[in-house]
Amino acid sequence: MTEVKGESVLESVVLRDVKTDETRDLELEGLFVEMGYVAKTGFVRDLVDVNAKGEIVVGKDGSTSHRGIFAAGDVTDTPYKQAVISAGQGATAGLSAYHYVQNLRGKPASKADWKALLK
Prior knowledge:
By secondary structure, the protein is α+β, with helices and mostly antiparallel strands. It has one helix spanning 83-104, and strands spanning 3-5, 12-16, 23-27.
């Protein structure tokens, strides 16, 4: 893709054939752009399990293979890399970390205890 066309809304994109260098217009009504990513997890590779892509392997609660370390977002092995998913994972991992610390203090946390953090 070499160009996006349209005044106030997307109308088409220009595609260039990399073998022939020919271009053509493709009419569209929508476009999803994915930037790609590289998981920057080098600083924890010796602490937690990572997969072949370098993503941190996590449980449903954001826990990692090392007790007390939690992870969330695009650096995890979750298959979908979207901001809304990362935000939800962050909330889950944060609450899991809170419960972990409370348990270390001998104060098991209830599901309602997170509200105290907002005060």
